[in-house]
Amino acid sequence: MAACTPQGPNLLSGFKRLTRFDTGLGAQLPEAYKKFWREWKIQQPTAVHYIPKEGRWERDPVTGEVRAIQNTPLPLIFPPESDDGIWGGEGIIKGFQKRHPQKRRVPHFWVPVLRRSVVFSAILNQHMSVTVTDRAINLIHDNRGLDHYLLKTPACDLRSTLALGIKRKLLQALQEGCPALNDSPTKQKAVYSEYSKYLEQYTPEEVEWYGLTFLEAIKKIQAKIREESKVSPHKIEFRSKLIEELKKANIKAVGSGEEGEGGLDDTSNIQATSSWFSKVNPFGKKQET
Amino acid sequence: MFCNKFLLPRGLTPISQILPANLQKRTTFILKRKWQEPLRKKGYGRRDLRAKNFVYDLVEDTLVKKQKNLSVTLTQYVESVGGQGEVISAKPNAAYNKLILPGYAKYTDAQQTTEKKDIDYAEHSSPFAQRTINMLNRITLGVVMNKDVPWVLEPWHIRVSLRKVGFYCDDSCITLPSTPIKGPDLDIENKDFYVTITINNKEKTELKCRIHHWSTDPSNRLPYVFEHWKQESEPLNIPSDQV
Predict the structure, then answer these.
(1) What residue stretches are annotated with the Ribosomal protein L9 domain (chain B) (predicted)?
(2) Which of chain B's residues have a Cβ under 8 Å away from the Cβ of A95?
(3) Which of B123, B145, B176 is the last residue of a domain?
(4) Is residue B119 located within the same domain as residue B140?
């Protein structure tokens, strides 16, 4: 029975839903991108909106009942706007408030306070105006700068495509030796020596695929495949074939012309070598039907 | 005495000990489930939660909490803040927006300690001297003298007048014009002259002063002039000592 399913004998170890990396172009994505994806979407992010309990068991203070500790994270919502800023792992919480014991619960959204601020990247030598939360700015302070914060923090805590995009640019700039600081070589050297330790965690291929959304990755692999297997029209292919054939014929004619009559442009040689060509010659003898 | 509304808020204090940064930080809403979620079985995924598992209590809103000061090291002399190499502890937003982002300062290393001799004030006696000069240049000092008893202007008159408007200094800081100013003389009433103030025995600045005659007898007093420093006046005809 297992052989009848698309998963084949893999079904024996339980049914597994096909993921985006199992079908279509997604299946062709390299392991480098899958690694980034796991870091971004699968890895458990740091607890931001709740305080995780420590230990494995806890005792109820009233009843004395022992209960296992399972820290279930609060579900967060990340609107499209979150991708345009650096929220430092914060998100929107959708839930209820119980404001009075005898009243019905009230729906409530806890939304982070956003403000526009400026961040500075030493590697890119650039100030950037971004939407941030206070937590993001505090994290930048704690890590002593935007570059350290982005390069140290895993993708699951950065979350937004903007932050990941900047991180990707930082890694690429480090690979090229900080080209933004070409004007001041001493500063360039100092910055490179300070940040190059982060580059050791990634291979060049991983840097190439880091920080891309799934759609961007698909477009990238598509472009790569097209580049590798270029399709040229049959018209060009056949024409070049024909030209080659003609050239071959002429060379033969040259060989025969040396012995006797005939030049390079003599059509009679072509007629002699290729019988089908003489049939289509409009100036040839009209064939009787 | 000098509240600075231009650069940094009050409370800038050089600190000798820098504590390591606490990395675990939450500046946001911290919530707690009012009713705990059901336990999931070992080896199974997340259980479906019920609506009541999404009722949250607010544990803390860290946005309204007072934030700790940020310690930064100045990379150059900054007026009314400090000299190059000085470690400054300031409110985080002010330190970030006014010192770090323009490039006047960088984050302090965890092990960094600066001694007083390392600090470079770039030809200033102190980072606050220029601020004092600015404030002295802004005011017109009213020097109130007696209308009935003869007097000759002395440095302590200027010192007392300065103290009335909130500046404290010694007589040695004040250099009067070489020509003595004598009174009472209603010809010099409300006329300007300049004295030279020396700050920290280094910086010198001119202070604009204006004589006003005052009598202990109320009937003998000159009429009250509202905001005399806003009115134009003639200079006193004495050669002033240029700085």
Answers:
(1) 71-111
(2) 31, 54-56
(3) B123
(4) no
The answer to whether the CB atoms of B52 and A135 lie below 8 A apart is no
Note whether residue B7 is domain-resident: yes
Q: Which of A50, A137, A141 sits opposite B31 (nearest CB)?
A: A50
- What total of structural domains would you count in chain B? 2
Per DSSP bridges, beta strands B29-33 and B151-152 are: unpaired
In SS3 terms, chain B reads as CCCCCCCCCCCCEECCCCCCCCCCCCCCEEEEECCCCCCCCCCCCCCCCCHHHHEEEEEEEHHHCCCCCEEEEECCCECCCECECCEEEECHHHHHHHHHCCCCEEECCCCCCCCHHHCECCCCCCCCHHHHHHHHHHCEEEEEEECCCCEECCHHHHHHHHHHCCCCCCHHHEECCCCCCEECCCCCCCCEEEEEEEECCCEEEEEEEEEEEECCCHHHCCCCCCCHHHCCCCECCCCCCCC
Could you tell me if B83 and B18 lie in one domain?
yes
Nearest C-alpha in A relative to B93: A137
Predicted confidence (pLDDT) at residue B26 exceeds the cutoff of 50: no
Same structural domain, B91 and B141: no
B101 and B155 part of one domain: no
ipTM: 0.75
pLDDT tens, B121-152?
878 888 899 999 999 999 999 999 999 999 99
User: DSSP assignment, residue A288?
Assistant: P
Residues B100 and B18 in one domain: yes
Domain range for B155 is 129-230
The answer to whether A210 and A36 have CB atoms below 8 angstroms apart is yes
Mutate to test the interface with B, among A72, A111, A148, A187 (most CBs of B within 10 A): A72
Interhelix angle A185-195/A161-175, rounded to 10 degrees, is: 120
The answer to whether the beta carbons of residues B212 and B193 sit under 8 Å apart is no
Taking residues A215-235, report their average pLDDT: 93
Between B204 and B63, the higher pLDDT residue: B204
